[in-house]
Design brief:
TIM Barrel; 53% helix; alpha/beta; binds flavin-adenine dinucleotide
């Protein structure tokens, strides 16, 4: 109920404008966001690398309303990829197709993403195309598949809450396309997604096994300790070495668990968002764990 309300609010543009420009909003978002500029993000990235953790930078923004905006997003990503390399940061980038113009022109979007993937291939880096709501799943997979065939250096994300995900994984595995497995963060109807968390978790574990067995360097993206333990146990039982996959988590969440995994010799990558358009991302983080609202309220009271 609260989750649905928060996810509904995450798409409200007026509220977004108001919250994003307020001092207080910025302060509260800093738990999950590395800062507003690329320099902020690179500073945080160096600290993360020094803890033995790699990262993927996400320039916040989605559902742009003009192709100029989409081109600006592409340029920031091109700059980010170059800076990662020049400053010896161990990381890559993650993007959303609606930020690259998908809702406005499929061709323009493809051209924007292609420039970035082409640069990533040249630099020996990698571009992860995040997965948005189920309205975009087909288009995302089609585009990633086409760009992968042309350049390599690109992968995507599959959400365990969707009924269709096993088929999508099989399709991408057949083409050796790298997959990040996550739960799924959008408001979806019971016609496309498991409504019960227990079913989502069960499906997550099944898909994790499929990926560890047949996937191309899969990323297991979750903060759920039980699923992480099951992943470790499954890999160990099947003789799958810890460098054949990686765990991923979001910046600002479960630092204790991140450190434990690194100390135990597992690969860990953090998703590090930066930029001014942080509101929808922030609201999805609140929706995942309404207890975060108490953290927010405590900060408000402290002021
Ligand atoms: C690296 C990465 C990339 C992602 N990319 C995508 C994407 O492309 N598309 C997409 O739809 N979703 C994406 N997600 C979000 C994902 O779908 C989930 O919404 C999110 O990870 C929460 O689910 P969970 O499995 O981690 O944990 P849950 O099963 O929700 O919770 C397990 C435990 O994790 C901790 N936890 C989880 N969320 C939070 C939080 N917000 N704040 C504090 N603690 C928390 C709590 O201890 C909780 O008990 C990504 C997640 C990660 C880690």
């Amino acid at each position: 109920m609260l989750r649905s309300l928060l996810l509904f609010l995450s798409s409200q543009r007026r509220l977004r404008r108001w919250v994003e420009t307020s001092q207080l909003g910025r302060k509260l978002s800093s738990r999950f966001v590395a800062g507003e500029t690329l320099d902020d993000a690179l500073r945080v990235s160096r600290r993360i690398n020094s803890e033995g953790i790699t990262l993927t930078l996400d320039h916040l923004g989605e559902s742009v309303t003009s192709l100029d905006e989409a081109a600006r997003a592409r340029d920031i990503y091109l700059e980010a990829l170059a800076a990662i390399l020049n400053q010896n940061v161990r990381g890559n980038v993650s993007l959303k197709l609606t930020q690259f113009g998908l809702d406005l022109s499929a061709d323009a979007c493809r051209g924007n993403v292609a420039q970035l993937v082409e640069q990533a291939a040249r630099l020996g880096s990698f571009v992860r195309v995040d997965m948005e709501s189920s309205a975009y799943t087909d288009r995302t997979i089609d585009l990633v598949e086409a760009l992968h065939a042309q350049y390599g250096s690109v992968g995507t994300v599959i959400q365990a809450y969707l009924y269709r995900s096993r088929k999508d994984i099989e399709r991408l595995n057949a083409r050796r396309i790298r997959i990040r497995l996550c739960t799924g963060a959008y408001l979806e109807s019971g016609t496309v997604a498991f409504p019960r968390k227990a079913d989502v978790d069960r499906n997550y574990v099944e898909l994790m096994k499929l990926l560890l067995n047949e996937g191309e360097y899969p990323a297991i993206a979750t903060h759920d300790q039980r699923i992480i333990e099951q992943t470790k146990a499954y890999a160990a039982a099947r003789g799958i070495a810890p460098d054949r996959f990686e765990f991923q988590m979001l910046y600002g969440i479960r630092r204790d668990l991140q450190k434990q995994l690194v100390a135990a010799g597992y690969r860990m990558r953090l998703y590090v968002p930066f930029g001014e358009a942080w509101y929808p991302y922030f609201m999805r983080r609140l929706a995942e764990r309404p207890a975060n609202l108490f953290f927010l309220a405590r900060n408000l009271l402290r002021r």
